[in-house]
Amino acid sequence: xxxxxxxxxxxxxxxxxxxxxxxxxxxxxxxxxxxxxxxxxxxxxxxxxxxxxxxxxxxxxxxxxxxxxxxx
Amino acid sequence: xxxxxxxxxxxxxxxxxxxxxxxxxxxxxxxxxxxxxxxxxxxxxxxxxxxxxxxxxxxxxxxxxxxxxxxxxxxxxxxxxxxxxxxxxxxxxxxxxxxxxxxxxxxxxxxxxxxxxxxxxxxxxxxxxxxxxxxxxxxxxxxxxxxxxxxxxxxxxxxxxxxxxxxxxxxxxxxxxxxxxxxxxxxxxxxx
Lengths: 72, 192
Hints:
- The complex is a heterodimer.
- By secondary structure, chain A is mainly alpha-helical.
- Chain A has helices spanning 3-23, 30-39, 46-57, 65-70; one strand at residues 24-27.
- Chain A has a domain at 24-72.
- Chain A starts with a helix and ends with a helix.
- Helix content of chain B is 69%, strand content 2%.
- The two termini of chain B are 34 Å apart.
- Strand 1 of chain A pairs antiparallel with strand 1 of chain B.
């Protein structure tokens, strides 16, 4: 194989290796896998809206005797 | 303590959510939701294997927390307290649905088979399929192992706190975690 061809082949192999590293994340433990998964899992914004509605329907906490007296 | 499991992630709308929460309830509760909702949602998602059910469960957990926040004495960390509510809630749902087939015993033959996989790194393609593979893997674990791994993934929890949540000592958590990792790794490789 001539020198030029060899250099070209080495360049292709290097590029391929870099691409593979970009695509693959090597994790050593189960919890690292879960952390990677958690990082890409977003909380649905709808939960906050529903929670707001639910709390609005909750009975208001009763005022204490002192605060009732002072609010008159 | 180490960083939060999701702290380096840009969170869509999280600031806006917290602001909205602060409008209709106490600012403190908005801050609590902002800080802990991702971990509670993730735990529910992976325990229940269903995004819609996880959404309902997260809502219910924070509503329960809101109702009893004034009774929270600070005997444990707030996050641990929220996790306890979430774990009990999800367990109740799972029991009432009877929809899972739990692996309750792992025999010696399985340990021998799994040991080879357990030593190799877990290679994960950074694609949407990751969540699906993790769910398949977790669904095959005994409930105890699944919960341990999910809790250990939260770097804000110590082994002692995890022990408190799962009714055992911190040392027992360490021991079981070793086995749980092996079983997880073995099942995870099978999803490739």
